[in-house]
Amino acid sequence: MEHITLLLAIVVVTALVFDFTNGFHDTANAMATTISTGALKPKTAVAMSAVLNLVGAFLSVEVAKTISGGIINEEGIRTEVIFAALVGAILWNLLTWLLGLPSSSSHALFGGLIGAAVMSAGWSAVNGPTIVTKVLIPAVAAPIVAGLAAMLATRLTYKLGAKTDEKRTAKGYRVGQIASAGLVSLAHGTNDAQKTMGIITLALITGGAIAPGSNPPLWVIVSAGVAIAAGTYLGGWRIIRTMGKGLTDLRPQQGFAAQTSAATVILASSHLGFSLSTTQSCSGAVMGAGLGRKGGVVRWSTATRMFVAWGLTLPAAGLVGAGAEFLTKQGPWGIAAVAVLLIAGSGVIWSLSRRKPVDHHNVTADDLDEPAGVVTTAIAAVTPPPAAGSVAAVTDEDLKTTIPAPVPTDPTAPPAPAAAV
Predict the structure, then answer these.
(1) Which of 121, 198, 228, 329 gives 20 to 30 Å between its CA and that of 28?
(2) Do residues 376 and 299 touch, judged by C-beta distance below 8 A?
(3) Number of neighbouring beta carbons within 10 Å of residue 348
(4) Model confidence over 255-266: pLDDT tens digits?
């Protein structure tokens, strides 16, 4: 193994902690729809995803090479910069997990790295063209492409099965969901596990442990794969509930279409070396599948909060990374202060999460109390009224209220007797 200094060892451990948070933060990408439609039990789903994430980590190193030798200029970058970048990424991951928002762990890492590098060496330390072509363009394109593909796939699925009994075919689609969820997990391993490989490789290069341009050593690949698999098995139940129940109500046909579309986009990007956000791809596919079913409705209030989190991820993680780098530049006491702040911030977030815990027991519960968005309210407003004489109740699932149907009155009937006082 390469010569590892104490500081470099701290950075490697911190990178693996980030990889762990990436695992439970992004479990929802592969398994949210599978769990919400009942295709797999929650614990079984996360165990399957963890194993396939580990396998996927060994399939490619293209994304890792993009991070270790493309996002920032290696020359003049200190090891402390990598540490500061990881602090920004970890804290943002934990904050969005607490809020149940499926934000991008990838962009949190990039934001922290960019902010720390700029604080350390100025804007010249950042490779602008690489960020635009390898990060920003895929960030915009991936959810749109995955969403359109999922919407078309959902419509095609319902069209082909129009003459079949939906309940009978649902079982077959659940089996298909399991296969497509496995494909997403495998794709996640090929993309997201490599980001940590890339950041550890970059730290080893800046620390002089390996030569510039080197591929990730085997021990880096193994440790990154194990860390993300362990985090995946822990299960990011808060985000799983948001993606599985908070964005839209999915049926097995939609879940199969969403996961297949997302896996295709992620695998294609991994092959090309594009470090896109698997979270954005999967979220876009879920929304596309929701719109693809006739009568399906996306809860745009949840989606709007998610879009805001996407937009804030790069700058927020960048600011934290820059602040952490400012402290590390002050010397050993600054590095120690950053470590203490990271541990304290993580502890506070974990404590807050215990006030209203979400786990595999209540991840599919219908108690989101999600307010209806403008589009949902408009659709509910134009719902056809019940037939005359009906005493059935009209249930609006999105508004979580039950509106009793009006009961017609007979004008010839005698008035009701007055209540006794």
Answers:
(1) 198
(2) yes
(3) 12
(4) 788 888 887 887
Other Cβ atoms closer than 10 A to 333:
10
- pLDDT value at position 348? 95
Give the tokens for residue 331. 């010397």
User: What pLDDT is attached to residue 337?
Assistant: 94
Beta pairing, strands 393-396 & 401-404: antiparallel
Q: What is the rounded (10 degree) CA torsion for 334, 337, 342, 347?
A: 180
DSSP symbol at 303: H
Q: CB burial class (10 A; 0-12, 13-18, 19+) of residue 199? A: buried
For residues 16 and 1, what is the distance between their CA atoms, to the nearest angstrom?
A: 17
Residue 250: the pLDDT is 74
Cα 209 to the center of its chain, rounded Å = 33
Q: How high is the pLDDT of residue 143?
A: 87
Per-residue confidence (pLDDT) for residue 377, from 0 to 100:
44
Whether residue 60 contacts residue 271, with contact meaning beta carbons closer than 8 Å, is answered with: yes
CB contact at 8 A, 72 and 118: no
Copy the structure tokens of residue 23. 């695992």
- Joined tokens for residue 26: 């992004």
Distance CA 278, CA 82 (A): 22
The token duo for 384 is: 């056809």
The secondary structure element, H or E, covering residue 364 is: none
Query: What CA–CA distance (Å, rounded) separates 231 from 337?
Result: 26
Question: Residue 402: what are its φ and ψ, rounded to 5°?
Answer: -120, 120
* The pLDDT value given to residue 398: 42
pLDDT < 50 positions in the chain: 1, 368-403, 405, 418-421
The dihedrals phi and psi of 392, each to the nearest 5 degrees, come to -75, 160
Residue 124 near residue 77 (C-beta atoms within 8 A): no
To which residue do tokens 């969005």 refer? 96
The 3-state DSSP class for residue 127 equals coil
DSSP 3-state of 328: helix
